[in-house]
UniProtKB/TrEMBL annotation:
Domain of life assignment: Eukaryota
Classification lineage: Eukaryota, Viridiplantae, Streptophyta, Embryophyta, Tracheophyta
An annotated Gene Ontology molecular function: protein serine/threonine kinase activity
Protein name: non-specific serine/threonine protein kinase
Pfam families (UniProt xref): PK_Tyr_Ser-Thr
Compositionally biased tracts (Polar residues): 10-27, 379-388
Chain residues that bind ATP: K117
Span list, region Disordered: 1-59, 375-419
CDD domains given in the database record: STKc_IRAK
InterPro entries: Kinase-like_dom_sf, Plant_Ser_Thr_Prot_Kinase, Prot_kinase_dom, Protein_kinase_ATP_BS, Ser-Thr/Tyr_kinase_cat_dom, Ser/Thr_kinase_AS
UniProt family annotation: Belongs to the protein kinase superfamily.
Length: 419
C-alpha cells in the first residue's frame, strides 16, 4: 500500500445531495468484509464473525427482503422528483411503506423511507451493498441509522433506510441557502456528541467494528438533530486476539484518513478517532477538510488550523464566524483542545471514543456566559472576522447559478496494499 493518496484520486466533481446517506464525497473502493453497524433488533453480541458467504449474511440479517416491484411502487417508479441525494454509490429516493406490513403505501401515508439504488457498474458496488446488509442488519443503536430492508433481484441492488428528515451534517455545515440555516453552537455540540456515541458503540466489545469512513456526509440528522451514522460499506471488523490492528487496503475519503493508516495500511479504532477530529474541526470552523477554493496555505483544514488550536486566544481565528457569540469561552477552548487531541499525529496520544464522549458531555455543561466569548472575538477581530470579510470564496457549498454545487472525490482506493 502506498503512503500517499496517490494519483488515483480524481479532481473534485459536483454532486448534489439533500438527504445524503454518505452518497457523496467518497473516493473509496470499499472492502466487503469490513461491515459496520446500525439498525436492527438483534444484539451486537450475536453478530457472527466475518467473512461469511452472501447467503449466510442475507439469511442472518434481521431486515425485510423487498422485491424490486415493491420498492418501485413505494418510490413512484423512482421518479426524479423523489431523489433525495446522488453520489458514487447511486441515487437515494424518497418512498412510503405501510408501518405494519411494509407494503408500498401512497405518498403521505404510512412511514417515509429512503431507498438507495445501486448503480449497476461492477462487483465492487455489490460488495459494499453486502457490507451494509451485514452490519446494519445485525447491530442496533440510537446513533446508527436503521436499515429496514434490502432488495437483491437479478442485477438490482437496493437498500431501504429510515428517513432522516434533516439530511446530512455536511449540508448544514457547507450548503448555503434558506433551507439550510447555520447550525448553532449547541446543535453542533449535540451532533458531535451523538456521532461520538455512535462511534464509541462500534468500538465497544459488543460490536468491535472500525468504521473507516467517518465524515460529515455520513452523519445524518433526524427531525430533532439527533445524529446517526450511515453508510457502512467501508467498515471492518476490529482486530481479534492479541492483534493490535487490522491490515487492509487503504480506503477512505481524502482529508479524513489517519496518517499512520495511510503510511502502513494498519487500521485501528484510533483511525476513526482521527477522522472524528477532522469532522469536529469542520464543525468548529465551518470549513471543509479539503477546499481547493481557499487561499494557498488553507487548502487542508487540519494543517492550517493546527497552529491556532494550540493557543487559547488564537482559536478564534479558526471558529466559524456564523457562530457569533453563541458559545462559551470555556466551551470553545475545550472543544478546540479535544479536536487537537483527536488529531494527534501519534495514534497513542489520541483519546478513545469513550473518552471523547465524556469530554463532549463536559463541554455541554460549560456555564460561563457568552459575554466572555464576545469580548474575545472583538479582541481577535484582526485575525478572525476581518479575514473572513477579505476572503469571499465561492466554496463547494455556495450557490452557482442558483443551484448548490458540491465537489466530491471520485470513488477509488487510496493506494494498493494488503488484503
Amino acid at each position: 500500500m502506498g503512503n500517499c493518496w496517490g494519483a488515483k484520486i480524481s479532481s473534485e466533481s459536483p454532486s448534489r445531495s439533500v438527504y445524503t446517506s454518505g452518497a457523496n464525497s467518497k473516493f473509496t473502493s470499499r472492502n466487503a468484509n469490513g461491515l459496520s453497524s446500525s439498525s436492527s433488533r438483534v444484539s451486537a453480541s450475536s453478530v457472527p464473525p466475518t467473512p461469511r458467504s452472501e447467503g449466510e449474511i442475507l439469511q442472518s440479517s434481521n431486515v425485510k427482503s423487498f422485491t424490486f416491484n415493491e420498492l418501485r411502487t413505494a418510490t413512484r417508479n423512482f421518479r426524479p422528483d423523489s431523489v433525495l441525494g446522488e453520489g458514487g454509490f447511486g441515487s437515494v429516493f424518497k418512498g412510503w411503506i405501510d408501518e405494519h406490513t411494509f407494503a408500498a403505501a401512497k405518498p403521505g401515508t404510512g412511514i417515509v423511507i429512503a431507498v438507495k439504488k445501486l448503480n449497476q457498474e461492477g462487483f465492487q458496488g455489490h460488495r459494499e451493498w453486502l457490507a451494509e446488509v451485514n452490519y446494519l442488519g445485525q447491530l442496533s443503536h440510537p446513533n446508527l441509522v436503521k436499515l429496514i430492508g434490502y432488495c437483491l433481484e437479478d442485477e438490482q441492488r437496493l437498500l431501504v433506510y429510515e428517513f432522516m428528515p434533516r439530511g446530512s451534517l455536511e449540508n448544514h455545515l457547507f450548503r448555503r441557502g434558506s433551507h439550510f440555516q447555520p447550525l448553532s453552537w449547541n446543535l453542533r455540540m449535540k451532533v458531535a456528541l451523538g456521532a461520538a456515541k455512535g462511534l464509541a458503540f462500534l468500538h465497544s466489545d459488543k460490536a468491535k467494528v472500525i468504521y473507516r469512513d467517518f465524515k460529515a456526509s455520513n452523519v445524518l440528522l433526524d427531525s430533532h438533530y439527533n445524529a446517526k451514522l450511515s453508510d457502512f460499506g467501508l467498515a471492518k471488523d476490529g482486530p481479534t486476539g492479541d492483534k493490535s490492528h487490522v491490515s487492509t487496503r487503504v480506503m477512505g475519503t481524502y482529508g479524513y484518513a489517519a496518517p499512520e493508516y495511510l503510511a502502513t495500511g494498519h487500521l485501528t479504532t484510533k483511525s476513526d478517532v482521527y477522522s472524528f477530529g477532522v469532522v469536529l474541526l469542520e464543525m468548529l470552523s465551518g470549513r471543509r477538510a479539503v477546499d481547493k477554493n481557499r487561499p494557498n496555505g488553507e487548502h487542508n483544514l487540519v494543517e492550517w488550523a493546527r497552529p491556532y488550536l494550540t493557543s487559547k486566544r488564537k482559536i478564534f481565528r479558526v471558529l466559524d464566524p456564523r457562530l457569533g457569540a453563541q458559545f462559551s469561552l470555556a466551551g470553545a477552548q475545550k472543544a478546540a483542545a479535544l479536536a487537537l487531541e483527536c488529531l494527534s499525529v501519534d495514534a497513542r496520544y489520541r483519546p478513545n471514543m469513550d473518552q471523547v464522549v465524556v469530554a463532549l458531555e463536559k463541554i455541554q455543561d460549560c456555564k460561563d456566559t457568552a459575554r466572555d466569548a464576545r469580548a474575545e472575538v472583538k479582541m481577535s477581530s484582526t485575525g478572525f472576522g476581518s479575514s473572513k470579510q477579505r476572503y469571499r470564496r465561492r466554496s463547494s457549498g455556495e450557490a452557482v447559478n442558483g443551484k448548490a454545487a458540491y465537489p466530491r472525490p471520485s470513488a477509488s482506493p487510496l493506494g494498493s496494499s494488503a488484503k
